Amino acid sequence: MPRIGTGFDVHRIQAGRPMVICGVTIPCEFGLEGHSDADVGIHALCDAIYGALAEGDIGRWFPPSEMQWKDADSAQFLRHATGRVAARGGVICNVDVTILCERPRIGPHREAMEARLAELLGLPAGRASVKATTTERLGFTGRGEGIAAQAAAMLLVPK
Ligand SMILES: Nc1ccn([C@@H]2O[C@H](COP(=O)(O)O)[C@@H](O)[C@H]2O)c(=O)n1
Ligand SMILES: C[C@@]1(CO)OP(=O)(O)OP(=O)(O)OC[C@H]1O
């Protein structure tokens, strides 16, 4: 049956950390705070996939209280979510991620992010989409206090 899931995540800006979004480290004068590498795009996408499966959220599988996930590469979280789909005999049809921030500009890195997500998901090119929007300088993203991401995932799962 078709199953759809959505995800949303926010991380606070933090100086002195790398900026990793959708599996790609991009040049930026600040990074994101988090227990892991704080890849806000991948976290939202994991929640979309877990949500489509009704298997909880990323914190269920990778609790922030566990030191083994400190500074972890979020690619492993996405591999796990993808593995859960396979374990249920399902496939991922397509995913779509939107990053909400004024800076950094996502456009120059969009194709690299899509390629990396497709690789991690085991999808052909064109099935993983990354988009970006500002919030017109409104709210916490607009003030540059944090970055938000939302995601959707479409699956086909036997039941
Ligand atoms: N961090 C961002 C934000 C936006 N973009 C690109 O700019 C376009 C216009 O943004 P608006 O918020 O004014 O709609 C948007 O469609 C993105 O293509 C970006 O690259 N990085
Ligand atoms: C990714 C995890 C891993 O402990 O921690 P964070 O990097 O803090 O990310 P967040 O999206 O706040 O929470 C989910 C956690 O599972």
TrEMBL record:
The record marks 35, 134 as: Transition state stabilizer. A divalent metal cation binds at residues 9, 11, 43. It is an enzyme of class 4 (lyase). Gene3D superfamilies: 2-C-methyl-D-erythritol 2,4-cyclodiphosphate synthase (3.30.1330.50). InterPro entries: MECDP_synthase (IPR003526), MECDP_synthase_CS (IPR020555), MECDP_synthase_sf (IPR036571). 4-CDP-2-C-methyl-D-erythritol 2-phosphate binds at residues 9-11, 35-36, 57-59, 133-136, 140, 143. Keywords: Isoprene biosynthesis, Lyase, Metal-binding. Its cofactor is a divalent metal cation. GO terms for molecular function: 2-C-methyl-D-erythritol 2,4-cyclodiphosphate synthase activity. It catalyses: 4-CDP-2-C-methyl-D-erythritol 2-phosphate = 2-C-methyl-D-erythritol 2,4-cyclic diphosphate + CMP. Pathway: Isoprenoid biosynthesis; isopentenyl diphosphate biosynthesis via DXP pathway; isopentenyl diphosphate from 1-deoxy-D-xylulose 5-phosphate: step 4/6. HAMAP family: IspF. NCBIfam families: ispF. Belongs to the IspF family. Involved in the biosynthesis of isopentenyl diphosphate (IPP) and dimethylallyl diphosphate (DMAPP), two major building blocks of isoprenoid compounds. Catalyzes the conversion of 4-diphosphocytidyl-2-C-methyl-D-erythritol 2-phosphate (CDP-ME2P) to 2-C-methyl-D-erythritol 2,4-cyclodiphosphate (ME-CPP) with a corresponding release of cytidine 5-monophosphate (CMP). This is 2-C-methyl-D-erythritol 2,4-cyclodiphosphate synthase. It comes from Belnapia mucosa.
